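Folds abound. Consider this:
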Amino acid sequence: MTGDDWLAVRFEENRDRLRAVAYRILGSEPEAEDAVQETWIRLSRSDTEAIDNLGGWLTTVVGRICLDMLRSRRGRPELPVGEHSAVLADDGVPDPELEAIQADSVGLALLVVLETLSPAERLAFVLHDLFAVPFEDIAPIIKKSPAAARQIASRARRRVRGTPEPTDVDVLRQKEVVTAFLTAAREADFTALLTVLDPEVVVRGDASAASYGSTMSPLSGAAEVAEAFTGRARAAKLVLVDGMPGLVWMQRGEPLIVFSFTVVGGRVAAIDLRGDPEYLESVDLVTLRA
């Protein structure tokens, strides 16, 4: 048996597991097949003598490929779930092989929930909770520390298990309120800030955030908060913070402090400032247009 034949045999031994990993991350049979094929191409071009654990190497590579594919979806319109994933469609002929892959640890309900996770959350949860991949191996794939990877998987796990989250939050309305707050702060419009703040608004911050501006936290009351923020948010950017509108203060292209908002009745009721390095590694930030 030649070296290429031996490599092909070893890859086939891992194919079913790789396809299962890819399917659970992507939720799409055709995309899972594409990811597995790309994994084989990368393996065939690699120095296999330098690979100590082929199974682990293949899982890491297919994970990276799947993560890139998930992120690329954000650049194109989302398809309805039934069109995106063959298994979630109501019509069509069942694929016995695909059903066998799904049956052992993932069902329709889980796939639907996975669709709501961010790419990093989805990958960390699937690899760790469904395939027992250590966080030390997951961390390089999502370019985070092992501790941050653990936090990301934990956040995903809570959502998968149905931990109650606010259901009455209007994301578009919150964006309007946060944008109004940012504009008023940048323009040093004290009156406009008072208008957008709840009379009992509070500002809280962790130790890292406080070290960058101790006068910003803790604060309470609209007047005190408005005075603290007037003219002081010029460097802040509007972002989604784990899916909800908020702000981030960047330094040299990296997040320094994240501002999470609680909006009640169309006004800012609370602002939480977080600068803890592990939190900054684990939080999902997406830039928005004001």
Remarks:
- Strands lie at 197-205, 219-220, 236-241, 244-251, 254-264, 267-274, 285-287.
